[in-house]
Amino acid sequence: MSPRMLAGLVVGAVALAACSSSPKSILADVTDVDSGGISAPETGDRSAEAKLDVPEVTPPDTLDLYEVAEVPLAELPAEVEEALSDVCVPSCLGVECGDDGCGGSCGECGADKKCDTGSCVCAFETCASECCADGAICFDGLCCAPSCVDTLCGTDGCGGSCGECDQGYSCRSGETGPACNAVCADLCVGNECGPAGKEGECDCGACDDGNACTDDWCTADGKCQFGANSATCDDGNPCTENDLCGNKQCSGTLLPMEQLEDKACLCTSDADCVAVEDGDVCNGTLKCDLDSPSPVCVVNPATVPECEDGIACTLDSCDPLLGCVQTLDSPQCDDKNVCTGDNCVAGAGCQSLPVADGPECVPGFPWQCVGGACKCVPQCAGKECGPDGCGGSCGSCGAGCECAANICVGFCGACAPDCVGQSCGPDGCGGSCGTCAANQSCDPATYNCKVGAPCTFPASFSGDGLKVNFLKAGISGKPGEAVDVDHNAATCAPTADCSSGLDNQFAALMKSLAIVLKGSQPLVDSVVSGELTLLYEMRNPTNDGKPFTMVIYRGTPVLPKAQCDFQVPEVTPPAQCGAQGQACDYQVLQESYYPASCLPISLFDNAEMAGGKLVAGGPGYHFAFPFVLALAEGKSITFVASHAKIVADVTLDEAGNVKCISGVIGCAVAKSDVLSIADAIPEENLPFPKSVIISLLDSVVKPDIDADGDGIKESVSSGMKFTAIPGNIK
């Protein structure tokens, strides 16, 4: 065989062996082959085997081993096999890398590749025909190098993880990178207190039950323990003191009951409030107000007693021990009717029942109980006139009478003359009991005619003396200014200024003269100065309505006014009773008497006094009327007036003596007398012509009284106010 054929055979055999899935040495020991001068190497290390000196041949693009060998290997000649058995033929046919079978290499693979069975494959990860570097992986179609440098947990950047945290830890960014951090909320599950975590990095809290009466600590397994103590504390209850801990509770000693008032005591149940009860059922009982954020003992409204029973006559009260008490208060049932018995009845209220008939029901008045009603019973026993106490009258007095203390006093109706034991003098009705013969005179002491010298005027006076200290003409025909002169209640004067049958026609003249007098009061001034002195003598006066004699005199003071002044200096004029100066002595002027009989002109034998009222005179009685004319320089002229009547109030002292008389004296003066008096005044004493004055009197002074009973009014009524005080008549 030629060397070229042998070489082809060897190359084909090597290629065949290299491409076989289970290579088999095709070489066999060659002992004696005609190799054209090539000798077989000695046995031993195959790497030192001698190589054939085969010319370099460029292999074809496609090598068919069977074409090269031309014959099957089994058909190789034995000598060939023997010759080739010790020859190493490199085999790289169809491979990229790897061992060429003879200690050489068929080629090296590039970066990130490795030789696998003669082929270069990716050494690590293949990603979309790209070989990834060592440690890189295929992620989202790209080679990705996971990185966990300074990263203990979380993603490696290539869809993988750098590590998972243990339970109770979470992966969070740290100073150098993501790390597992403790989640204390999870690590403390099951722990009440103390540290938790691998290195105790979590604090699960301290043990504090908020109870000052426990000592609090944490066990090794994270459990809280609370042990009782005996420390001082504050139980928050204002009703206790000396608070101490015991059995894990703070409690104190209850304050004294008197200190508990107005304190809100803490409680947990109604039983806690029993100790602070004040024992007063009127206040109700206490309950624990559990609806309050801080329950305290409060009054249970349902337990407060309602003591008002709705009955007006009971005094509703509450006893601290007994509770409601209703006290019957009968005075509240007073129906203001003294004729009923008023009582408060339990459960019923006020009841008023009639008392027996008869008892006086209005003290001091004639009212009596009749059938449970207070009725007025007229009281007229022993009374002639005046009110009967029931709005009615016990009778009325006749014309000219005055009712005083239920007795008719004065000139009452038809007067019955009384001349028993008398032969002369007044008959008690304004008339006379007779006229004495020419050689006789009427004894004023006995009112009997006596034979002898003409009458003599009285030398002494036994009656109570009074001195008129105020006298003023009335200015109207109204009460306090006039009297009923004619005893006719149907008439009064002056008609434009009068009432109640009172007569004072002279008031019209006084108003006319007031213009002329220019404010002067001649009558008043005459009395105050002492120029005009009127005296009253009251003979045996009584205050029971029985008649007595009263006389009016003209008089004169025994001593000058400078030595005995009856007036009170600071009271001028003394128009009121009690204005008493000195009780002076006075003498009676003879002009006070009728010359022929020596009897007083102004004598009232029908004077009556009762109940502080004095009435005297009437038609048939006369009065020595002092007519004072300032026009004639204050001169007074006296003339006798008819129908003289006195109505006055009487003041008695403690002994029953007359202390003062204040009232009105009225009379009727014939108009002709008034005009004749004016005509008698010398004209040189008058400030105006006499004819003017007479004309004034004639036009102003209109008669209003028929004094002589002939049916023609010829007299003028007059009224003068007066006051009289004690004086001594000598």
Structural notes for this entry:
By secondary structure, this protein is mostly beta strands. Among the domains are: 1-108, no CATH class; 109-147, no CATH class; 371-408, no CATH class; 462-729, no CATH class. 10% of the residues lie in helices and 29% in strands. It is built from eight helices and 40 strands. Strands 30-31-32-34-35-37-38-39 form an eight-stranded antiparallel barrel. A three-stranded antiparallel β-sheet has the order 23-24-25, with no helix packed on it. Strands 1-2 form a two-stranded antiparallel ribbon. Helix 7 (671-680) runs antiparallel to helix 8 (690-700). The longest helix has 17 residues, at 3-19.
Gist?
The chain has 730 residues and is mostly beta strands. The protein contains eight helices and 40 strands. Helix content is 10%, strand content 29%.
Topology:
Blueprint: H1 3-19, H2 65-69, H3 78-84, E1 113-116, E2 119-122, E3 125-127, E4 130-132, E5 137-139, E6 142-144, E7 154-155, E8 161-163, E9 169-173, E10 178-182, H4 184-187, E11 195-196, E12 202-203, E13 214-218, E14 224-228, E15 240-246, E16 249-254, E17 286-288, E18 297-299, E19 314-319, E20 323-328, E21 340-345, E22 349-354, E23 360-362, E24 367-370, E25 373-376, E26 401-404, E27 407-410, E28 440-443, E29 448-451, E30 464-473, H5 506-517, H6 522-529, E31 534-539, E32 548-557, E33 585-588, E34 602-610, E35 613-617, E36 623-629, E37 635-652, E38 658-670, H7 671-680, H8 690-700, E39 715-726, E40 728-729
Parallel strand pairs: 33-40
Antiparallel strand pairs: 1-2, 3-4, 5-6, 7-8, 9-10, 11-12, 13-14, 15-16, 17-18, 19-20, 21-22, 23-24, 24-25, 26-27, 28-29, 30-31, 30-39, 31-32, 32-33, 32-34, 34-35, 35-37, 36-37, 37-38, 38-39
Helix pairs in contact: 7-8
